[in-house]
Amino acid sequence: MRKYFSLFFNFFKIGLFTIGGGYAMIPLMRETLVYRDNSLTEDEFLEMLAISQITPGPIAINMATFVGYREGGLIGSIFATVGVSLPSLITILLISIYFTNFIDIPWVKKFFLGILTGVVAEIVYITFDLFIKAKKTIFYLSILLLSVIELFVIRIDPIYVILIGGALGIVFGKFFEVKDAP
């Protein structure tokens, strides 16, 4: 039972202390799961991050479900998933009950502006850190460059960028030795 409560507490903390959604949670998830608890290796984390991004649902919930299942089976996945989801549920519930015009409160606007800046910094940090640690093959760099062009120049929907990258991996991956790609 201790294992389940540990999963719940770890993911509750991740959900509670990361504001800004799934991408903002990535640094804390990595710190907790890879470096502190050793639940995942760095490569496993990158693989699970990729899987969490392409499967339906929020990244944090997908990651919590996977790690919870791996550490404690079905019950572990339930504890981890509820743990990461509960802080958001409680926060939104309290805001909806006690603050009718919550966003119009001046200090709340300032608070969210400050949080937004921190979230952008976290996303930039994890992006560069993942790039530095990725196995950079010509195949990887080609898909990365194409994806950046698709997103910023052509402005293709990110869902299509992911699908195009996956399709290119299937079609051309056999020509490039992509053995450990996350």
Task: Report on the architecture of this protein.
With 182 residues, the protein is mainly α. It has helices at residues 2-17, 22-36, 42-54, 59-98, 106-133, 138-154, 158-172. The chain has two domains: 2-133, no CATH class; 135-182, no CATH class. Helix 6 (138-154) packs antiparallel against helix 7.
Keywords:
182 residues; mainly alpha; 2 domains; 7 helices; 79% helix; globular
In short:
The protein is mainly alpha-helical and 182 residues long.
Detail the topology: elements first, then pairings.
Blueprint: H1 2-17, H2 22-36, H3 42-54, H4 59-98, H5 106-133, H6 138-154, H7 158-172
- The radius of gyration computed from the alpha-carbon positions, rounded to a whole number of angstroms, is 18 Å
Strand content: under 5%
Structural class: mainly alpha
Low-confidence spans: none
| Share of helical residues | over 70%
What's the total helix number? Answer: 7
**Total strands:** 0
Mean pLDDT: 85
- What is the quaternary state of this protein? single chain
Biggest sheet descriptor: none
